[in-house]
Amino acid sequence: MRRFCLSIACVLVACVALAAGTENDARAEAQEEALFGGMPADEGRLEVFGFCGACHSIDLVLQQGLTRAVWEEVLVEMVRDQEMAPLRDDDRRKVLDYLEKYYGPDRRARNSGNNPA
Ligand code: HEC
Q1: pLDDT of residue 24
Q2: Distance from residue 32's CA to the centre of ligand 1 (Å)
Q3: Dihedrals φ, ψ of 63, to 5°?
Q4: Do residues 48 and 61 lie in contact, with contact meaning Cβ atoms separated by under 8 Å?
Q5: Residue ranges in the chain modelled with pLDDT below 50
Q6: Closest residue by CA, ligand 1 atom 39
Q7: How far is the CA of 22 from the centre of ligand 1 (A)?
Q8: In angstroms, rounded to a whole number, what is the distance separating the alpha carbons of residues 54 and 28?
Q9: In angstroms, what is the C-alpha Rg of the chain?
Q10: pTM for the whole thing?
Q11: N or C: which end of the chain has fewer CB within 10 A?
Q12: What integer pLDDT is reported at residue 111 of this predicted model?
């Protein structure tokens, strides 16, 4: 009986620890997302945040919902008209992949920019 109680206690402790861990992870993720203006964690987030938030608010970018073709035009326009340094090919691909995935016309990102999604 004693041993049985002990194992129950162990299982309970493990469950509580596990639940707390998951909760902390979710909280940390939400906090991190808030730091990035609501941008979901994924490959390319750092690049978009860094390259596209350098001259203007990142919200100016995140409030858009554009197709990849239009995002490509925006990048061309930033370089041609706004003195942005052209991105290296791999950075460009990451930026476009990320913007297409989360800031396309369907705007998959949860709290993107100032606009309610
Ligand atoms: C070298 C500075 C610079 C960088 C870097 C830059 N922009 Fe811009 N961007 C501007 C300026 C200047 C404007 C127009 C003035 C304003 O509204 O603040 C602008 C405006 C915009 C607009 C508003 C609509 C438009 O076409 O005018 C969008 C969208 C945009 N930028 C997206 C981006 C994206 C995406 C990136 C990253 C790939 C980026 N910008 C990086 C300078 C920059």
Answers
A1: 84
A2: 24
A3: -80, -5
A4: yes
A5: 114-117
A6: 52
A7: 38
A8: 25
A9: 21
A10: 0.81
A11: N
A12: 57
Phi, then psi, of 108 in degrees rounded to 5: -70, -20
How far is residue 61's CA from residue 95's CA, in Å, rounded to a whole number? 12
d(CA 103, CA 30): 19
Provide the pLDDT for residue 16.
Answer: 62
Count the residues in the chain: 117
Q: What is the pLDDT of residue 110?
A: 64
Cα–ligand 1 centroid distance for 58 (angstroms)? 9
Residue 57 and residue 14: Cα distance in Å, rounded? 44
Residue 48's pLDDT is 98
Take atom 30 of ligand 1 and give the residue whose Cα is closest.
61
Q: What is the pLDDT of residue 7?
A: 67
What is each CA distance from 31 to 34, 36, 37, 40, 47, in whole angstroms?
5, 9, 10, 11, 19
Position 116 scores a pLDDT of: 45
Give the Å distance between the CA of 71 and the centre of ligand 1.
11
